[in-house]
Structures are given as structure tokens and as C-alpha cells.
Amino acid sequence: xxxxxxxxxxxxxxxxxxxxxxxxxxxxxxxxxxxxxxxxxxxxxxxxxxxxxxxxxxxxxxxxxxxxxxxxxxxxxxxxxxxxxxxxxxxxxxxxxxxxxxxxxxxxxxxxxxxxxxxxxxxxxxxxxxxxxxxxxxxxxxxxxxxxxxxxxxxxxxxxxxxxx
Length: 165
What we know:
Elements lengths: L10 E5 L1 H10 L1 E2 L22 H4 L2 E6 L5 H7 L18 E6 L8 E2 L1 H10 L12 E5 L2 E2 L3 E7 L7 E2 L5
């Protein structure tokens, strides 16, 4: 797989088309949206093993600044970033929401800071993706959105997303 160049150097949240439409209605990406746990990432083994950002009350973000898929995969072989990139297979397509970091800076935790916090908290049973997963504590308003892209296949380029389509 060739990593989509459109994602490099920016901060992103990814979701399904249906959830994106719910975000537009609510006006925010919520840290704990009204979605059944069976539909969430890594929640099938109960709350004691929820992903780290979720137990912090945050929204997971991808920070692909200077990302090299081969180097990262070699350093973190069990990391599941490719489950989401370029799209989540079970959704058949994914919406990528660029988050303008300067608009969320007060409650933003960088990937590096998140890794340090995870170690300090000794939260080893709670998963996250070292360095590329960042977090925002609390809701992210739609006013912090930049580009909206959609990906439907591994071979297609990410394209701007039109909500009306």
C-alpha cells in the first residue's frame, strides 16, 4: 500500500460517512458519542481495556507529520494504523477530517506527550498508537475543521468530500 500523501503533515480525525453526518448535526466531534460499544474500536473486552484516549475523555487524532510507513511499521510492528488508512474496510469508505491544531491548542495532547503520559500513568493495558496518535480532551467543534477528504479504496486518491453526495 502506498500511504496517501494527502494525509502527511496534517492532523486528522477519521470516521464513517454516517458518523460524519452525525458530527455535522451535533456541531462537534464528541469524545464519547452515542454509539454502541460494539461499534467502537477495541471495546469488545470491556472498559478495563478501552483505548487510552477514550479513558482520558478525549477524541483520537492522527498526526502524520513526517510519517514514513515503513520506518514506523518497523519500529511499532503491532500498531494498527493500517486498519484506518486509507479507509476502514468494514465501513467501505472513511471520511478524513483535518483538524486545525491552532484552533484546539488548549486541550490538545501531541503524540509525543500522549506517549509520555501513558508511561507515567502506567496505562499499559490501554492501547494507543505511539507518536502518531494524538488526542483532544473534550469535544472538537466543526469550526476547527479544515479539509474534508473521503477514501473508498486502497488504490484511489483521497478526494474532497461533498456532504450532499
